Amino acid sequence: MSGASPWLQYRVGKWVANHRSTPDPDGRVYDAYNDEPGTPLFHFGHGLSYTSFAMSQLAVQPTAATLNGHTSTSLQVELVLTNTGTRAGAEVVQVYIVDPVSEYVRPWKRLLTFRRVHLDAGQSARVSLLATPEMLAFQDDSSAVGEWVVVPGEYQIRVGPSSIDDTLTADVLIS
Asked: Is pTM beyond 0.85 here?
């Protein structure tokens, strides 16, 4: 059980000798990894570095593309990444899509694409990522064939170094 996730340890309990939390009436002790039980200690994409980065000037350009013989949308995502620290380092730029109002049961936020960028101290670079229709699509179960479709509508593109620090946002209309 020591290799189980913190969430599972919180829900099920774990015998520990470190006495970081008070025991239950049956003697089990929960390993208190963070202040909010049930939340991850490290979010998806979390990483540590010897330097710091800043992302700015987000621009999202929808363009026409083809998916299964139908005209769909791809997204060209561009931003400026700057190494604001005193050492060279690498940052992973992550692009997420959020569908605030969906008629289908889909994940609220999905990782579309990412790129690892290495920069020297003080250096800036324009980073360009392409989200193809295949990345935006899902398999429609209402058809017998299970065709891949992109649902038109308003979406939000979120960019950042992790799933929780995706602070750059742009609204986009996908047709």
From this structure: no
